[in-house]
Recover the amino acids of this structure.
């Protein structure tokens, strides 16, 4: 019988997620588990409500990516109504989704990960946060705050408020874009582009010193899943499903999102409230190669991005894959995120330059025409599915939500196992090793609000516990 | 602690119970005002920082979210014991809001209904029992569990409203009640 190390985020205090690392008799790491400890039950308590309320209710699943939920929900609603929203509405949905991508990725990169990247994985824990960043790198902190603010401000300009905007609805969006607001949004883009370019420089120079981390923070071959447009371009709002394997071969392509259940299955484990999703061809129970979703996956599955600067970066990104194969190092989620910000800002700029963007026809109206609706969107963290079954009055009889972070659940477990194997040894538990394991989770930027809600994973104690429960060693932070 | 011994720099905390993080996102929407705030006060506990146990001697704690499980409950008590002012931050903390929509269903039904459909085991069965916190039978607003000194409604509260409340509370003034900001949601 081996021993157990629990990375416990002051369990009894914050405790939305925990990590357990198990050692075998020789003291080597044999297993690692990421436990999500929060439960909210949206799929159950929404039964009986109207599908038209769902964009607003499901936005409250997550304050970081409410727009993604409202879009997936509205897509499901479009299908229930049996309508195609006007082309203009689909464009405005794209714009608000890109704006959210900007703010969410900026939060992940600057507010949450930059302290590790700039101050060091093993730096003073009291400094490893936004306040520490403000003290040591005030310009970087200010840029990060500005970039996130630009994304939020674009959302606010389109939709009246930045968190939980009531804007995207079944059939379209609520409001056309005014000329004044078009100009306001267009004027915000250049500053954002300048910030993301300097963030790219920052990351690239940080990566020069992080060779070992890139090799061990979740580098494994596996499948990638994401939406791509009909022409193979990166897409976050519309498009069809594409999955590639570690060799870059397309194992699924052009699959309409409403057939997601043909390829994806869900399972649960007794030790986490977050479900585990698997590619049906490969499991469960023996899920040897977890698939990944999110920025890294999207940039691996698409043929090109379709904007000038992002495509230039994509070519550099692709060189990180060995022998022309997909990029398998999860550490490069950081890089992929910055490329996506670049892309989103470029696309917003192009969209704001379109003559017709201030047109008036933004909503199609109908009543319930179908009893099933399935919709998807690319949330900042990956592909998100909403499936609704309704009665003739549009009241929900069944709801299934497949969230991005659940799809990365197995990949996150694999990642922390790799890191623990490299940096955790049986008799010494260092605070630095603890933060490294946590960074493995931060790479995926898990939207634990969608299942729980811990952003910084505020872990304090790693414990080495013998099978009888005695604490053999303890590493403390702070 | 007597007023005279209070530390010169204010100590503020933000905590996250059963909510969606949206109130925290609205807090981050203070944008550059965050820099002013962090120049004047220390953020001694928050989901956005690596800080250990909820510390002692906190001047002001903003609590997002409702009380949904036993860990939320313990944290709420600890926050009360260690904070001079506790504010219910956002509608989930103030009323239960979306988090409490599960209250019409028994917990057992929620868990088995959600997880039995797929393969695998139901959370908190077997080995999961000691790792995952138990859900409370009903989700409660914060003031039903601990005494609360101030309420900042909104889903989420608007950043200007947060700024007005936080600066007032840190100054020892009541939260201003501004026309147009007396609503929920
Ligand atoms: S009040 Fe609204 S924004 Fe705040 S946690 Fe609750 S649902 Fe989220």
């Amino acid at each position: 019988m081996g021993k157990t190390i629990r990375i416990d985020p002051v369990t009894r205090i914050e405790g939305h997620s925990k990590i357990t690392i198990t050692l075998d008799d020789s003291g080597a790491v044999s297993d690692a588990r990421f436990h999500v400890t929060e439960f909210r039950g949206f799929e159950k308590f929404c039964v009986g409500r109207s599908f038209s309320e769902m964009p607003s209710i499901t936005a409250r699943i997550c304050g970081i990516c409410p727009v993604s939920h409202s879009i997936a929900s509205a897509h499901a609603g479009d299908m229930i109504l049996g309508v195609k929203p006007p082309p203009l509405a689909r464009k405005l949905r794209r714009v608000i989704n890109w704006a959210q991508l900007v703010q969410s990725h900026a939060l992940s990169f600057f507010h949450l990960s930059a302290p590790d990247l700039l101050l060091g994985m093993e730096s003073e824990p009291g400094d490893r946060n936004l306040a520490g960043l403000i003290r040591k790198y005030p310009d970087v902190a200010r840029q990060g705050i500005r970039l996130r603010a630009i994304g939020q401000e674009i959302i606010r300009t389109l939709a009246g408020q930045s968190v939980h905007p009531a804007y995207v609805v079944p059939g379209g969006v609520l409001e056309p874009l005014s000329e004044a607001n078009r100009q306001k949004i267009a004027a915000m883009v250049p500053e954002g582009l300048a910030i993301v370019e300097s963030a790219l420089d920052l990351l690239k120079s940080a990566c020069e010193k992080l060779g070992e981390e890139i090799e061990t923070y979740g580098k494994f071959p596996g499948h990638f899943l994401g939406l791509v447009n009909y022409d193979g371009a990166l897409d976050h709002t519309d498009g069809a499903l594409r999955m590639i394997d570690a060799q870059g071969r397309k194992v699924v392509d052009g699959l309409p999102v409403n057939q997601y259940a043909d390829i994806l299955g869900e399972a649960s484990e007794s030790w986490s409230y977050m479900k585990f999703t698997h590619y049906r061809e490969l499991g469960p129970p023996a899920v040897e190669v977890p698939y990944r979703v999110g920025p890294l996956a999207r940039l691996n599955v698409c043929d090109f991005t379709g904007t000038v600067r992002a495509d230039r970066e994509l070519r550099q990104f692709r060189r990180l894959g060995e022998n022309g194969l997909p990029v398998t190092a999860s550490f490069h989620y950081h890089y992929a995120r910055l490329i996506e910000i670049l892309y989103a800002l470029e696309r917003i700029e192009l969209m704001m330059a379109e003559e017709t963007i201030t047109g008036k026809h933004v909503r199609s109206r109908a009543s319930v025409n179908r009893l099933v609706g399935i919709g998807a969107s690319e949330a900042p963290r990956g592909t998100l599915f909403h499936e609704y079954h309704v009665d003739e009055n549009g009241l929900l009889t069944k709801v299934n939500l497949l969230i991005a972070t659940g799809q990365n659940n197995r990949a996150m477990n694999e990642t922390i196992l790799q890191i623990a194997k490299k940096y955790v040894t049986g008799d010494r538990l260092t605070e630095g090793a603890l933060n490294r394991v946590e960074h493995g989770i931060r790479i995926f930027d898990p939207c634990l609000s969608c299942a729980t809600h811990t952003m910084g994973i505020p872990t304090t104690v790693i414990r080495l516990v013998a099978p009888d429960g005695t604490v053999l060693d303890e590493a403390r932070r702070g | 602690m007597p007023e005279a011994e209070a530390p010169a720099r204010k100590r503020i905390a933000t905590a996250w119970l059963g909510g969606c993080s949206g109130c925290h996102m609205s807090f981050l929407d203070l944008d550059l005002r965050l820099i002013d705030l962090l120049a004047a006060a220390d953020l001694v506990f928050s989901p956005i920082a690596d800080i250990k146990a909820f510390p002692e001697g906190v001047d002001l704690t903003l609590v997002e979210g409702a009380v949904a499980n036993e860990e939320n409950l313990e944290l709420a008590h600890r926050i009360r014991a260690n904070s001079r002012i506790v504010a219910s931050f956002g509608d989930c903390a103030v009323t239960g809001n979306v988090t409490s929509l599960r209250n019409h269903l028994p917990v057992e039904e929620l868990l088995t209904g959600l997880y039995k459909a797929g393969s695998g085991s139901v959370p908190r069965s077997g080995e999961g029992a000691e790792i995952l916190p138990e859900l409370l039978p009903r989700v409660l607003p914060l003031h039903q569990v601990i005494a609360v000194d101030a309420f900042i409604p909104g889903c989420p509260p608007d950043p200007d409203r947060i700024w007005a409340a936080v600066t007032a509370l840190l100054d020892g003034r009541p939260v201003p009640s501004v026309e147009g900001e007396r609503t929920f949601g």
Summary: Chain A has one domain: 42-414.
